[in-house]
Amino acid sequence: MPRNPFTVGQPVAPERFVGRENLIAIAFDQIYNRSNLAIWGGRGMGKTSFLNLLTSHHIWESQDLDPSKAVIVYLNCLDTQPFIPANFWRKIINLIREKTKDDTTIQPMVRELLKKPKITKDYLRLVLKRLGQQNKFLVLLLDDYDATFRSHSQYTETDVEVFLSECRNLAYHSSERKYLSMIVTSRRRLNETGPKLTPEKSPWYNHYAFQQLKPLNQKEVEKLLSQMQIPPALCDGIEEIAYGNPLLLQNVGFLYYHQMRSGETPSAEIFARELIAATEHFFQGTWELANELEQTLLMLIALSNLEGRVQKKRYNLGDINIIFSQKERELIDLEQRGVIKRSTVEENTVYSFSSTIMEWWVIKEIENTNAEILKQREKVFLNLMSHQQAEKVKNVIKYLSENKEAIKSIVKWLGKLAAYFA
Ligand SMILES: Nc1ncnc2c1ncn2[C@@H]1O[C@H](COP(=O)(O)OP(=O)(O)OP(=O)(O)O)[C@@H](O)[C@H]1O
Ligand SMILES: [Mg+2]
To answer: Torsion over CA of 144, 361, 253 and 251, rounded to 10 degrees?
Structure first.
C-alpha cells in the first residue's frame, strides 16, 4: 500500500523540508558568529518546521559546521504556559542535561543546579561558561517566543520586561554570549507585539537580525507538490487556494493523493467540502488572530471584490480605495503574513485574497453579521471612514446578510480547482 507522502498535522521532517535556502544560510551565519536571529511568519508558514530543520545534524554538515560542537536545544514557549521565567530557565537547563548525557563535566553541574528551588538566567550563564570551557556552545531555538509577552496574575507587565531584558543581557551583554546563539520565532515581528521601547528601557529586541518567513515561491511550490504527479491545470487551482502557504499545500496534496489512491475522481463539490473541512481551523485561526482593524480591512477587500458580482443597484460601497491608501501599513502587514496579495491594475493598487477559501470565509463572516455585531463594528468603521461612507458599507453588509443567495456557492469560490474537477 503506497503511503501518502504529504505531511499533515506535524512539522515536516528535515529530509522532506523544501526550499528556504537563503534563510538556512542566514541562520547558519548567525550560528557561526554566535549571534541571534528573529524569524516571523504567519500561521502554517513553517516556523516550527524551520527550527526543527536546524536540529538536524545533516543540515549542519551541509553548511560545513560541526554539530558535535553544539548543544542544540528546542523549546516551544507555549509549552510553559502560564509563562513563569523560573520554569522556563529550568526547562532549558533540563533540556541541556538531556542533550549532554555523555558529557561527564556538564552532567554533575547541571544536576546540582537543577536541585535549586528557583532557577534564574544566571544559572544558565554558569552552564554556558562550562560549555565554553569544553569548546562547545549552545544553540537555543525558541519557538513562539511571543508567548513570553503575555502577562498574567503571576507574571506582570514589569516581569515581562525584566524577562526580555534578561534574555538580551544573556545574548548581548554577558561575556558568555560567545557560547550562545539564540534563534526565535513569532507570528508577528517582535517589535509589533512586544513591550514598546522607551528611552529608559532596555532595547530588548535590538540584538536580533530579523527575517521574515514568506510564502513559498513558485519553484518551491512545484518541488513540494512534485511528490506526486499533479496535472498542471490542477496546480493552477491549488495556487488559488494555497498561495505558497506550506500548511495549505500539504493539506491539498494529502487530500488529492488520498483520493487518487482510492481510485475515485471526486466531484468539485465533494473535493471542495473535504478540503474546507480539513483546513477550516486554519482560516478560522487567521480570522480570529486578526485584530478588529485588520478584520475590517479584510471585509472591505472582500466587499470591494464582490462589487459587480451582485446586483448593482443595491450595492454601492463608495470610494473605499481612499481607506486602503490610508491604511497601507496594516495592509502591508497582512500581505507579509500571506493573507492578502497586491497587484497593480492600470496604475491602481488592487488588493485581493491570497486564498479563495479565505475570501469565502470572510464573506461568510459578513453574511453572518447581525445587527448587534454590526453595531460593535461601527466604532472601527468610524475610525476608518466618514459617517457617510460608513453608512454605505453598513447598508451593503445588511443587504448581503439578508440576501445570502446573492453570493456564489462554495464550489464556485474554488475557481480553477472546481473547473478542473468538473
Ligand atoms: N519548508 C517546508 N517544506 C515542506 N513542508 C513544510 C515546510 N514548512 C512547513 N511545511 C509544512 O507546513 C505545515 C505547517 O508548518 P509548521 O507547523 O512548521 O508552521 P508554523 O509556522 O510553525 O505554524 P504555526 O503558526 O501554526 O505554529 C506542516 O505540516 C509542515 O509539514
Ligand atoms: Mg509552529
So the answer is: 40
* Domain C-terminal end among 194, 212, 230: 212
Residue 337's pLDDT is what? 85
Range in 15-19, 218-222, 244-248, 345-349 with the lowest mean pLDDT: 345-349
Pocket perturbation via mutation, ligand 1, pick of 8, 49, 144 by most ligand atoms within 8 A of CB = 49
Q: How far is the CA of 387 from the centre of ligand 1 (A)?
A: 43
For residues 106-131, give the mean pLDDT.
93
Domain boundary among 165, 180, 212: 212
Q: Looking at the predicted structure, is the pLDDT value of residue 294 above 70?
A: yes
| Ligand 2 midpoint to CA 40 (Å) | 11
Burial of 238 (0-12, 13-18, 19+ CB in 10 A): buried
> Has residue 78 got a pLDDT over 90?
yes
Where in the sequence is the domain holding 146, given as residue range(s)?
Answer: 20-212
Determine which of 68-82, 295-309, 352-366 has the lowest per-residue pLDDT on average: 295-309
Please tell me the number of the ligand nearest to residue 14's CA.
1
CATH code of the domain covering residue 100: 3.40.50.300
> Do residues 63 and 181 share a domain?
yes
Measured from the alpha carbon of residue 225, the closest ligand is 1
Whether residue 248 lies inside any domain: the answer is: no
Ligand 2 center to 82 CA (angstroms) = 18
Q: What is the pLDDT of residue 406?
A: 64
Report pTM: 0.91
**Which atom of ligand 1 is the closest one to the Cα of 19?**
1
Question: Which residues have C-beta under 5 Å from ligand 2, the single-atom ion?
Answer: 47-48
CA of 143 to the centre of ligand 2 (A): 7
